[in-house]
Amino acid sequence: MRPPCSRHHRDRGRGAAEAAAQRTWQAVLRARADAALRRSEEKYRTLVARMDEGFALCELLRDVDGHAIDCRCIEANRALQRLLGRRDLEGRCVSELLPDEHRHWAQAAAAALACGESSRFDSEVKALHRWFDVKVAPFGGERFTLFVDDITERRRTEAALRASEDRLRKAISIDTVGVLFFTLDGRMLDANRAFERMTGFSVDELRDTVHWDMLTPPEHMAATLRAVEELVARPGRRILPPGRRRLGSGSVAFSRVNVCKR
């Protein structure tokens, strides 16, 4: 007959079973965690790949004194590859990709890492003839993310608007050219000094008491209305035929009128 197990043996066997169960449970937890991490990374990569704006995960590089001097691209999406015109971004430094702008980008990244908050800046990349809106966000340690959007058309539009306003200011300052601003329903908004002098109306009088048809003789009203209608349908410039216009004094003067929508 087999001798009965001692209590010591039973306790020892129970402890081994519990240890095995604990190891098995820990393995299950690790497997679940690994699976959740893989799903999270897959979602992250899918999101990054489908983004319309450029994205990069980068690492800040410093010199021996701790000053930010460059950035290294760890990973980048296709949108950023398209914006920069290169596919070989991963593993490269910004100084290789954007030699004229890398210090500014590195300093912006260092500032974001130092304060722990995201920041953004506009960057003109002259080599590409493009303007970018760049957002920098800390990612942990010396790593950070870049979100890059092409704003070239916006900057060109803003530059064209500034140039247009500059031309307008120069035109308004000419003493021999009267300039009047009014809404298409006839309300006066503003005028330059030359127009005040030519018509005898002050700007305040134009705004408070004068309607544009008060300056238009009846024989020119039809042509003026047609010009306004065309201006609404097709913005541009319309030139009214030379004719006599009423002045503030009640007299009339011979003038040529250009109408444009601003």
In this structure, how is the largest beta sheet organized?
5 strands, antiparallel
Average pLDDT level: 79
Report how far the terminal alpha carbons are from each other. Answer: 111 Å
Report the C-alpha radius of gyration, rounded: 36 Å
- How many helical elements? 8
In the CATH hierarchy, the third-tier topology of the largest domain is known as Beta-Lactamase
How are the strands of the biggest sheet laid out side by side?
2-1-5-4-3
* Secondary-structure element string: HEEHHHEEEHEEHHHEE
- CATH level 1 name of the largest domain: Alpha Beta
Q: Class by helix and strand content?
A: alpha+beta
Q: How many strands? A: 9
Task: Tell me which CATH architecture of the largest domain applies here.
Answer: 2-Layer Sandwich
Short description:
The chain is α+β, with helices and mostly antiparallel strands.
Describe the structure.
The protein is α+β, with helices and mostly antiparallel strands and 262 residues long. It contains 8 helices and 9 strands. It has helices spanning 7-50, 78-84, 94-97, 102-115, 152-172, 193-199, 203-208, 221-233, and strands at 54-62, 68-76, 119-125, 130-140, 143-150, 180-182, 188-191, 237-246, 252-260. The chain has a 5-stranded antiparallel beta sheet with strand order 2-1-5-4-3. A two-stranded antiparallel ribbon has the order 6-7. The chain has a two-stranded antiparallel ribbon with strand order 8-9. Strand 3 (119-125) and strand 4 (130-140) form a beta hairpin. The longest helix has 44 residues, at 7-50. The termini are far apart. Mean pLDDT is 79; it is low at 250-254.
